[in-house]
Amino acid sequence: MRSFLKAQKVIAGFVALVFFLFSGVVVPAQAAMIGTAEILSAQDDALARQKVHQFLEREDVVRHLQAWGVGAGEAQSRVDAMTHEEIRLLAAKIDQVPAGGDALGLLVAVSIIAFVTLIITDIIGVTDVFTFIKKR
User: Fold this and answer.
1) What is the per-residue pLDDT across 7-60, written as a single tens digit (0 to 9) for each?
2) Are the beta carbons of 78 and 114 closer than 8 angstroms?
3) pTM, whole model, 2 decimals?
4) Virtual CA dihedral for 99, 104, 47, 40, nearest 10 degrees?
5) Cα–Cα distance measured from residue 89 to residue 66, given in angstroms and rounded to the nearest whole number
């Protein structure tokens, strides 16, 4: 009986020590209100990104991109790498293209944005696409 009481005290002491050690590790949770504008902005960004992706999936756009040597998958990945502002600008350009009209201007805009993005990433040193950009 004495050994059982002694074992109980040791176990109780060990459990108390573990509870004490873990109570200092707990980090309090933090919460904040999310404004309606933030939610709507995130939804607008998702819709704009979806619109650009759908535009790049069109048959005529894929044909033009392939004629310029840009694969559909590469164009989609470049769209994924664009900032929120670039996506919104591009989606607004898609809305301005007349129905049934030529989307050459939009494709030029997409190409210029992609070209500028690649130049910036080359200057930063993230990619090595262009040989005319000198590295430090």
Assistant:
1) 888 888 888 888 877 776 666 778 888 888 888 787 888 888 888 888 888 888
2) yes
3) 0.47
4) -100
5) 23
Q: Which helix (H) or strand (E) holds 28?
A: none
What is the distance between the alpha carbons of residues 85 and 91, in angstroms, rounded to a whole number?
Answer: 10
d(CA 59, CA 17): 67
User: Which is nearest to 114 in space by CA: 58, 62, 74?
Assistant: 74
Structure tokens at 121: 């990433």
Q: What is the predicted pLDDT for the residue at 57?
A: 85
DSSP string, 75-98: HHHHHHHS-HHHHHHHHHHHHHSP
Cα separation, 19 vs 25, in Å, equals 10
Q: Look up residue 136 and give its DSSP letter.
A: -
Query: What is the C-alpha separation between 69 and 78, in angstroms, rounded?
Result: 14
Confidence of residue 98 (pLDDT cuts 50, 70, 90): low
Q: Which amino acid is at 55?
A: F
> Could you give the CA distance from residue 114 to residue 129 in angstroms, rounded to a whole number?
12
